[in-house]
């Protein structure tokens, strides 16, 4: 039976919505599960007899043609019955196509023009930050080309160059948006993704497609049958967690003469627009995809529970969340005219092993982890998080570009040494902005998981120091940081050199803090040199 276009438009969405909710979908299982009966389906082999007892998701006929100069004449010229299901392994589509003149592709290069089905999947993207740039003074939004000449926050000397840059960012964002939409061409030679692949030059870390998918196309006397499993690992990226909704489009190309151009094109949506998820059918996944870590932090980082990172996305293919990607306008020192990409993509590693948070120290029944919690124009900040099992006890902000250099259990709980070693200005701006700054914080973690800053010190390379006369004739050089294995002592070390008498031997200095476990305090053993 050929259905009318309005029914065709809703068939995929309504059937998946109603049928898929009848049984739960276990994400850990490896079998492809029929969501109607719970029976395990045979392998993807193009033999569709097991599908024919199930309600179809979609019927297509001549009235569903959306493109092509030639018109389909009747159901013998072209008609199709399609079944589609979200399963434990991914998205399964099977179909029977009636076609009186069959021209299947012999190679991937021939696929687009030949007889073949296509499946589109789109997931909700993150919100992109405004078009703009950043320098040491902060971020400047340039959301329209007109802002290049009418902006209170900046005084651009090259408005024409700014407008050209703005146009480049619009094009860049259009390509980056493709990371959240994938177009799967199904042929006898396999599955080929066409739409998102063009963004790979901008984002080399994009999950490849389609090593975890499989398909089969079997020609017959009246046309062909096909089956395809789009594996979860080959799904597009998304900016929402948990992933509960998707948009789906199913197209079929028909080639009757064997020409090297598409002749006729049929779709589940009469109003389809190429690559526009707004013209796909909205569906609800039978079981939301919610990749996470152990202990869980995805709700905090992605859902906004306790403060989300921002414009973040991930690939939902695995149940174990390992890394996130943030869209951010990164700052560049002295960038007074826009030149850097808007946005850049920042890779955030949250796991040291699949699904396992990066552990810092463990004592008793408490484990402490380091997790990225903020991305700004100035860089990425991480936080220490103390968990008892899956329960978050407390957290401590490490600061931008700081790292945990050491952590050890102690009598009271644990100690952690957080270190920043980088330019004095995060963007290298200022009189000595690129001078090396070395800063540490000794942090204690109590038996209940509470964090406390015990002591801290900092010193900057090339910073001036007073001589015995009080004049700033000396400077610090060659700074180093060392600590005892049990973190009972932390020492800053460096040399003091004279500007005027640089040929004389440098004077070595040390500045040490000692942790007193008995009193729970840090004591300065030696004061740092004046001016440090």
Structural write-up:
The chain has three helices and 31 strands. The chain has 532 residues and is mainly beta. A hairpin with a 2-residue loop joins β19 and β20. The protein is elongated and about 100 Å long.
Sum up the structure in keywords.
single chain, 532 residues, mainly beta, 5-stranded antiparallel beta sheet, 3 helices, elongated, disordered N terminus
Radius of gyration: 30 Å
Compute the number of strand runs. 31
Cα shape: elongated
Largest sheet: 7 strands, antiparallel
Give a quick precis of the structure.
This protein has helices spanning 5-20, 159-176, 298-302; strands spanning 58-60, 65-67, 79-86, 90-98, 116-122, 132-135, 138-141, 181-187, 190-193, 214-220, 223-231, 243-254, 264-267, 281-289, 312-313, 323-328, 344-349, 351-353, 356-363, 366-376, 379-388, 391-400, 403-410, 413-423, 436-446, 451-460, 464-465, 474-483, 489-498, 507-516, 521-524. By secondary structure, the protein is mainly beta.
Fold topology:
Layout: H1 5-20, E1 58-60, E2 65-67, E3 79-86, E4 90-98, E5 116-122, E6 132-135, E7 138-141, H2 159-176, E8 181-187, E9 190-193, E10 214-220, E11 223-231, E12 243-254, E13 264-267, E14 281-289, H3 298-302, E15 312-313, E16 323-328, E17 344-349, E18 351-353, E19 356-363, E20 366-376, E21 379-388, E22 391-400, E23 403-410, E24 413-423, E25 436-446, E26 451-460, E27 464-465, E28 474-483, E29 489-498, E30 507-516, E31 521-524
Antiparallel strand pairs: 1-3, 2-13, 3-4, 4-11, 5-8, 5-12, 6-7, 8-9, 10-11, 12-13, 12-14, 15-16, 16-17, 18-19, 19-20, 20-21, 21-22, 23-24, 24-25, 25-26, 27-28, 28-29, 29-30, 30-31
């Amino acid at each position: 039976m050929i259905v009318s276009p309005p029914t065709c438009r809703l068939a995929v969405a309504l059937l998946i919505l109603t049928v898929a909710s009848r049984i739960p979908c276990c994400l850990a299982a490896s079998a492809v599960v029929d969501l109607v009966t719970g029976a395990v389906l045979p392998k993807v082999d193009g033999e569709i007899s097991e599908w024919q007892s199930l309600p179809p998701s979609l019927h297509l006929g001549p009235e569903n043609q959306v493109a092509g100069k030639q018109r389909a004449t009747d159901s013998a010229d072209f008609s199709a019955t399609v079944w589609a299901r979200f399963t434990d392994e991914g998205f399964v589509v099977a179909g029977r196509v009636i076609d009186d003149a069959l021209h299947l592709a012999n190679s991937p290069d021939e696929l687009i023009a030949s007889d073949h089905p296509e499946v589109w999947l789109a997931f909700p993207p993150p919100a992109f930050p405004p078009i703009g740039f950043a320098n040491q003074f902060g971020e400047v939004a340039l959301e329209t080309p007109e802002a290049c000449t009418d902006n209170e926050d900046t005084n651009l000397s090259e408005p024409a160059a700014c407008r050209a840059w703005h146009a480049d960012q619009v094009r860049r964002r259009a390509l980056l948006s493709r990371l959240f939409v994938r177009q799967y061409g199904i042929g006898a030679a396999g599955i080929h993704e066409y739409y998102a692949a063009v963004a790979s030059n901008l984002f080399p870390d994009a999950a490849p497609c389609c090593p975890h998918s499989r398909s089969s196309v079997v020609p017959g006397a009246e046309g062909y049958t096909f089956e395809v499993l789009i594996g979860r690992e080959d799904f597009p990226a998304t900016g929402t967690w948990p992933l509960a909704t998707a948009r789906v489009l199913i197209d079929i190309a028909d080639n009757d003469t064997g020409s090297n151009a598409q002749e006729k094109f049929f779709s589940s949506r009469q109003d389809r627009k190429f690559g526009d998820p707004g013209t796909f059918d909205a569906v609800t996944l039978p079981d939301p995809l919610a990749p996470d870590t152990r202990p869980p932090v995805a709700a905090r980082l992605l859902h906004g529970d306790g403060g989300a990172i921002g414009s973040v996305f991930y690939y939902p293919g695995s149940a174990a969340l390992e890394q996130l990607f943030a869209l951010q306008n990164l700052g560049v020192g002295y960038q007074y005219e826009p030149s850097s990409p808007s946005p850049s993509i920042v890779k955030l590693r949250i796991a040291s092993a699949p699904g396992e948070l990066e552990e810092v120290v463990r004592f008793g029944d408490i484990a402490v982890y380091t997790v990225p919690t903020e991305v700004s124009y100035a860089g990425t900040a991480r936080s220490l998080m103390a968990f008892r099992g899956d329960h978050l006890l407390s957290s401590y902000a490490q600061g931008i570009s700081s790292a945990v250099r050491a952590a050890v259990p102690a009598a009271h709980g644990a100690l952690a040494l957080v270190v920043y070693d980088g330019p004095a200005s995060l963007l290298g701006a200022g009189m000595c902005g690129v001078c090396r700054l070395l800063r540490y914080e000794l942090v204690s973690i109590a038996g209940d998981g509470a964090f406390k800053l015990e002591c801290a010190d900092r010193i900057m390379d090339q910073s001036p120091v007073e001589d015995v006369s009080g004049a700033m004739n000396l400077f610090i050089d060659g700074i180093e940081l060392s600590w005892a294995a049990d973190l009972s002592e932390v020492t800053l070390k460096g040399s003091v050199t004279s500007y005027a008498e640089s040929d004389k031997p440098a004077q070595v200095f040390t500045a040490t803090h000692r942790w007193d476990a008995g009193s729970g305090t840090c004591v300065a053993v030696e004061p740092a040199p004046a001016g440090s």
